[in-house]
Design goal:
single chain; about 90 residues; mainly alpha
Length: about 90
């Protein structure tokens, strides 16, 4: 089970299908989504959690996706006082 920071929540609206193989796929899908979000939260593009659920092209795509979040720095806005001419 993936434990996320308390400010990260998910709501998966799919219920049980009654077919164990399908339910297992849905459960793994939920865990993979959470694993990618955990890697983002921990700023770790090579986090072992998502790599447990994917490999090859899928893992590489997740790594690039996570790296975009890691590399992103919020735009710092100048305060109104600093934008007025002297």
């Amino acid at each position: 089970m993936i434990d996320l920071p308390s400010d990260v929540t998910h709501a998966f609206d799919w219920g049980s299908t009654g077919a164990p193989p399908k339910d297992a796929v849905l459960a793994d899908t939920a865990q993979r989504i959470k694993a990618v979000d955990l890697a983002i939260a921990e700023h770790d593009p090579l986090h072992e959690a998502y790599r447990f659920y994917s490999e090859g092209t899928a893992a590489a795509g997740s790594e690039r996706y996570i790296q975009e979040f890691v590399d992103h720095e919020p735009v710092r806005r100048a305060s109104p006082a600093s934008t007025t001419p002297m």
